[in-house]
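#onboarding

Welcome to the new folks! Below is a worked example of what a typical request in this channel looks like: someone posts a single protein sequence, and someone else replies with the predicted structure as tokens. Don't worry about understanding the tokens yet, we'll cover that in week two.

Example request:
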Amino acid sequence: MAAFLENVSQIAILVFVVTCMATAGLGLTVHNMVAPLRRVRLVLLAVVANFIFAPALAYALTALLPLHEHYEVGLLLLGGAAGAPFLPKLAELARGDFAFSVGLMLLLMVGSVVFIPLALPLMIPGLAPEPWPLLRPLLLTMLGPLIAGMVVKNRSDAWATWLQPRVAVVSNVSMLLTLALLIGLNLKAMLNTFGSGAAAVGAVFVSLSLAFGYALGGPSPSTRSVLGLGTGQRNVAAALLIAAQNYPTEPGVMVMLMVTTLVGLIPILLATWWFARHSVSVGIHSDATSFADHPFA
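Example response:
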């Protein structure tokens, strides 16, 4: 029975990643994508925060603090996986610059597809040294559905409007199934992390990443909050995909991903609340409102 549920969890992860990316793409227009990225300085700072600082922080924490080898791999995977698909929703709740959050999400997703297969094998012993085995699933299950959704959105807004909530339902159901299966199958292992320092290290990683992103977010509170949240909230969908395909017999990797994601929600949600209280809301362009409305943005 356990082997059957393991197979179901692998399928659920795949469905979750594909539908999550497709839902995001169905809410993106060319304007959503291009306009925020014209702020070159912010884009460069976002790259530094997400693809230099966050991976370096994860590597430093695994080098300095005693963790189980599989927990270290999980943290390093999160360190290299940027571009959480629900960043625009966090930005909206934090009253941040929504347009910038959409562009940043797309930039970081595409950046992760490039960064993960090139950089992570240098940081994680045992990970496929050739980039193509890591790049292929990212292209097929992340970038492909994202681009397909964008093509539909830019060719027929009516079709995108009809499809998006339906694909989002599949995404949300598969996400809940993934969480239930991963937690259920790894509950004992997750409980065993208490006293190992895994949860504390995960919380430190998310908190410091958030703080560094916030510090680099420019003079405007509305962009500082977005870059902070975008750096602190890692792309667990991409990390789960890599872990499922490369470490299927090492549950500790999945456990670290789950533990860090769960404990990381505490600083993320606290920061979102604080940003909302201390920031002025930035208006949402009319062509971006559909993306703000979908439940996984």
